Amino acid sequence: MNYKYKKITTLLSAATLMLASFNAFSEVTAEQAARLKTDLTPFGAEKSGNDDGSIPAWTGGFTKTIEGQVSGGERLDPFKDEKPLYTITANNVDQYADKLSDGVKALIKKYPDTYHLNVYPTHRTAMAPDWVYDFTAKNAVDARIENDIVVGAYGGIPFPIPNNGLEAINNHLLNWKGVSWESQVNQYQITKSGDVLLVTSGLMKQQMPYYFKEGSAEGFDGNYWDISVVNDGPPIRAGEMIVGQTNLDPDKSVAYVYLAGQRRVRKLPHSCCDTPTPATAGLMTFDELNVYSNRTDGFDWKLLGKKEMLVPYNVNRFLRYKDEDLVTGQHINPEAVRWELHRVWVVEATLAEGKRHQSPRSLYYLDEDTWQAVLGDRWDANKQLWKTLWQFNYVMPDFKGTIQQSFGYYDLLSGEGYLMDANNNKPGQYRTTDRFPNNIFTGQGMAAQGVR
């Protein structure tokens, strides 16, 4: 791979290496953490732009309201009047090869007549509430990893100045995306012949107890993400439900499913890793959600460095397309996707000794401003590039952030794909809510709702 990584200034020290041998990683020093108020953003990104100005300086994020935006309604595009700077096609892809992931290059070559990238001006829109920044600064010196589990962190990015790949991927898992919200979503399978099949339609409620403002690391029980999905279509899946609570200690994570035809709630015995998740009718695995999710102890994580790359970003324009126009051929309609140049951390995951997984090696690309995984590539046991994963984020001033939402994958070997969390035809798109009662995310609470 011809990556030209930027030198990491926070390389592992000898002391950290010693601690790593005992499977525990130390926090950064107070002097390093002070950079979060000088040359780094509160989340640890480089505040300055790049040398040629194609990546601007971060000046606080997108703090304005979007003209015409109605709370709880369809989301508008703050950059709707901008035109692409250039377009990358099969004819000029080699010119931009060092700015593209392996998966994106493979897609352009696999679909040379239909797949391309429209590259727009870069906007560093990421932001968060001040209290999230305050928690992040505290985490920088207090958070650590013990036996693959994050401890001492709460309410912000746990490792804004990461020392290793495990810290970086946990920043993604715990990135800021609001406290409580709901959305009406559709999910689609893209077949190798180009057919688009509605897999599920329903209401999704999500909550991040890790970001309850009044909490603390000392009183936190580790349950950081709650989700409830109630399907209302297609008819064969209407009435199905799934709930889950994800914990920093993966052995404490739980998920339950309600099958309307059986009228019973079942606890999922293995709701992690490369197990297919019922939330996608088994077409995505638990750890493919949001490019990567779930437990981390199955892999060795290596922080390869930081790199300027073209990634999907500020993709509000995607929400302005009708569902029937979202897919062209075997992939997302390229005219609906906004690509920008951003700095990303590149993290490599290789299968840990004694573990099993369908994909022994992966690369994940984490946006420096948000810590969201915006792209990911997975190789199979034969060392073939197998799946390329993607995730869109949207400018959402009401969430006080640039928030990850729609995501999916392309199977480069079978030619199939998947689109999750499309709510383009829905009346409401990602609405902030009051905090949900905890019982709606439990098996008992779901059983009480389970009437088809």
Uncertain runs are: 7-23
The whole-angstrom Rg is: 21 Å
The helical percent reads 10-25%
Please tally the helical runs, counting DSSP H or I stretches of 4 or more residues: 6
- Alpha-beta content class: mainly beta
Q: Tell me, what's the shape?
A: globular
Furnish the topology, listing elements before pairings.
Blueprint lengths: L13 H7 L3 E2 L4 H4 L52 E3 L13 H9 L6 E3 L10 H13 L1 E3 L2 E3 L13 H9 L6 E11 L5 E12 L15 E11 L7 E7 L6 E6 L4 E4 L31 E14 L14 E2 L2 E2 L6 E13 L9 E7 L5 E7 L5 E12 L4 E11 L5 E6 L8 E2 L10 H7 L3
Antiparallel strand pairs: 1-4, 2-3, 4-5, 6-7, 6-20, 6-21, 7-8, 8-9, 9-10, 10-11, 12-15, 13-14, 15-16, 16-17, 17-18, 18-19, 19-20
Offer a quick outline of the entry.
With about 450 residues, the chain is mainly beta. It is about 10% helix and about 30% strand. It has one domain (about 15-90, about 100-450): outer membrane lipoprotein receptor (LolB), chain A (Clam).
What does this structure look like?
This protein is mostly beta strands and 452 residues long. The protein has a single domain, classed as outer membrane lipoprotein receptor (LolB), chain A (Clam), CATH 2.50.20.10. It is 11% helix and 31% strand. The longest helix is centred in the N-terminal third of the chain and has 13 residues, at 130-142. The chain is globular, with a radius of gyration of 21 Å. Mean pLDDT is 92; it is low at 7-23.
